Automatic annotation (TrEMBL), chains A, B:
It catalyses: L-glutamate 5-semialdehyde + phosphate + NADP(+) = L-glutamyl 5-phosphate + NADPH + H(+). Catalyzes the NADPH-dependent reduction of L-glutamate 5-phosphate into L-glutamate 5-semialdehyde and phosphate. The product spontaneously undergoes cyclization to form 1-pyrroline-5-carboxylate. Residues 10-288 form the Aldehyde dehydrogenase domain. Its EC number is 1.2.1.41. Its main location: cytoplasm. This is Gamma-glutamyl phosphate reductase. It comes from Terrabacter terrae. InterPro entries: Ald_DH/histidinol_DH, Ald_DH_C, Ald_DH_N, Aldehyde_DH_dom, Glu-5-SA_DH, GPR_dom. The keyword Ribonucleoprotein does not apply. The keyword NADP applies. The gene is proA. The lineage of its organism: Bacteria, Bacillati, Actinomycetota, Actinomycetes, Micrococcales. It comes from the Bacteria. Pathway: Amino-acid biosynthesis; L-proline biosynthesis; L-glutamate 5-semialdehyde from L-glutamate: step 2/2. SUPFAM superfamilies: ALDH-like. It is found in: Cytoplasm.
Length: 427, 427
């Protein structure tokens, strides 16, 4: 059994979850038109409150700086007028997306005349546990509302003031619209116990989605009794095959590593077929070095790293399984596609794995045998993204196999219900 | 944290799971024709071993009788020649079902020319934890094989000899076919710790499915760190609306309760609208009493139960949330569809809920607002079944919202993978 959770906190969180459940019943019955209208008004409310939100955010930043928060974390936390406008716009973008609720996924009329149909319905109450990124607060609230769900938000304490300001605006707007404010609830009290109460609110919360680093996600998976969807940890590989077009390989590798190195779909490890290593490595390592990428290399790659003028070190075993979150990359040479796939099995996290090859057979084997949410052929790992896939906004990239795998957009925030209509049918 | 699990058992189970993982890679690449041929040979092998299986089963029955096992549990455990033939036939039936693996669920060509497609792929390794029903052993093995998954089976100890005999036959047949025997593995040692090692074999096992009573399922949900699909607990209601056709209501109620009372989709509670109680209750309670149903009634139903000559008692609060697994039924009168739905929220388990009504509005509200895997209008709850829905065999009825809800057939034993093909695409 888990360590004891403060029973007062459990009671508070349960009470909030109950109110969210009541609100969710209202949301579940709203039409698309009603939900879209609500989202547009929420967006206007966020825009109107921009000054107050930026002020609240300044308090968070001030505390962060005093506590020695890193520059990159401060950047994730920061909201200026432009970013607040982008947060509001995200709500309008969600309003423009199709409503998944009510979609008939499949159905038939049985031989006995029974009509069965599987209909998409909201989950009910969704819990989000995330770090100090206040834009996630509004994104999650918008996606939850559009998919007919109430949401319980547990954001990082470093963003407490920003989240409080944003959720206050959203709740006041809901109330002014005659909608239940409890559809969007921020868990502000109870410290870590509030997060743990959320994870164990079985029956009150239908789904918990953690968004953040590997530690956060592992904690949520271990401690939750509510179903969890794991998101986002990505140790993504680029494998450059013997039959690769080396120009494409160069472009894909550099893009996958450097276009936005802090995110989960950036590449963390480069695997190069032995037969093309001497041709490919000098060029790609020179470009990577030029982009400021620090290399963690297998022994046989050191001479290339040295020649390319790269900052490098000999890779430890652990380095090959590391998500760098920055301009670092592990590099190894492999004998064939089997060794590449073996390394991916060993070090990968089932997020995105890419092969660069012109060989149909190699591509076919790689796509069939690599066990990951997304397998790329001749394309950058950076394409694993709800927006890039054409789904509009997403709530994260699922790296697990149950329910959803890959970018989680609106339909993945719903479940289904079978509706069966008869005329007094008995067995 | 959970109580400590014997580390030797953890090691044993992990080793078996690793071998299952290796086998699963082979299964994942098999064509439908290869899998169907294998299933037919497995069926022949079970038929050929019928005498040995029945003898092994006799040992289990002997131990069961000595331990005072109830007659109904003995019946579930029993395998005679006819039942072994049915078990073999079930494998042939699975061979005849379509293969879910490789189905392209959706896909598109993006504006930039990237081709994305979402393809159904096997889960990998599935763990089954179940009670003393040896037919489940073969059913689960067959469904897992057809969906390209390896399976780790943890059956009830009361069926140990039967399961050993059946799994030995299946593994020997696989090996004789040149297929990996580790695709079907029985966890025979380690006692309860083996089940707990299975539930916590995160990374080695992709999914655990418990099949059995409420206690078993709750234990698995609480102790698992591997994703779980809850199946089967059903406190199903039949609500007879004011606008019900009382003949249909009579047929549906009696069928839902008595056609096979021990299973999860049997009705456990009858709710009758106040306006039709005086007309409906005398008739239906007389029929139910005639079928030997014992009633647990709300105070205002006692006079009807008495007049119908039924065996009855005053229902406790707990009775209304009880899955009887037999010829018992709770009965209450409600003021309207809202009170019926309120009771279903309070006492239901999200399995199957039925309304009997000729009123479109009431049916529409009930199907929209009741939160269950299956909602029936004018049809018996007994129709919630993979076979009845036209899916062929099923592995259970999911009562949770994630991944699968309702009858779980072959597609629900798969996950998906996104395959993205480009030509050197970068962001």
């Amino acid at each position: 059994m888990s360590q004891t959770i403060d029973p007062t906190v459990v009671e508070q969180v349960t009470a909030l979850a109950r109110r969210a459940r009541t609100a969710s019943r209202h949301l579940a019955l709203m039409s698309r038109a009603e939900k879209d209208a609500a989202l547009l008004l929420l967006a206007d409310a966020v825009d109107a409150a921009a000054t107050a939100v930026v002020e609240a955010n300044a308090e968070d930043l001030e505390r962060g700086r005093a506590a020695g928060m890193s520059a990159s974390l401060q950047d994730r936390l920061r909201l200026d007028e432009t970013r607040v406008a982008a947060v509001a716009q995200a709500l309008r973008d969600v309003a423009a997306l199709p409503d998944p609720v009510g979609e008939i996924v499949r159905g038939s009329t049985l031989a006995n005349g029974l009509q069965i149909r599987q209909v998409r319905v909201p989950m009910g109450v969704i819990g989000m546990i995330y770090e100090a990124r206040p834009n996630v607060t509004v994104d999650a609230a918008g996606l939850a509302l559009k998919s007919g769900n109430a949401v319980l938000l547990r954001g990082g304490s470093a963003a407490a003031s920003s989240n409080h300001a944003l959720v206050t605006v959203l709740r006041e707007s809901l109330a002014a619209q005659g909608l239940p404010a409890d559809a969007i609830t921020l868990l502000e009290e109870g410290g870590r116990d509030a997060a743990r109460a959320l994870m164990t609110a079985r029956g009150h919360v239908d789904l918990v989605i953690p968004r953040g680093g590997a530690d956060l996600i592992q904690t949520v998976v271990r401690e939750s009794t509510v179903p969890v969807i794991e998101t986002g940890v990505g140790v993504c590989h680029v494998y450059v095959d013997r039959a690769a077009d080396l120009d494409k390989a160069q472009a894909v590798t550099v893009n996958a590593k450097t276009q936005r190195p802090s995110v989960c779909n950036a590449a963390e490890s480069l695997l190069v077929h032995r037969d093309v290593a001497a041709d490919f490595l000098p060029k790609v390592l020179t470009d990577l070095a030029g982009a400021g990428v620090r290399l963690h290399v297998a022994p046989e790659v050191t001479e290339y790293a040295e020649a390319a003028g790269a900052a490098y070190e000999l890779a430890s075993e652990e380095d090959f399984g590391t998500e760098w979150h920055g301009l670092e990359l592990s590099v190894a040479v492999v004998d064939d596609v089997d060794e590449a796939m073996e390394r991916i099995r060993k070090y990968g996290t089932g997020h995105t794995e890419a092969i660069v090859t012109e060989d149909r057979g190699a591509a076919r084997r790689f796509t069939a045998e690599v066990d990951a949410a997304v397998v790329m052929v001749n394309a950058s790992t950076r394409f694993t993204d709800g927006g890039e896939f054409g789904f509009g906004a997403e709530i994260g990239i699922s790296t697990q196999k149950l329910h959803a795998r890959g970018p989680m957009a609106l339909p993945e925030l719903t479940t289904t219900k079978w509706v069966v209509e008869g005329d007094g049918h008995t067995r």
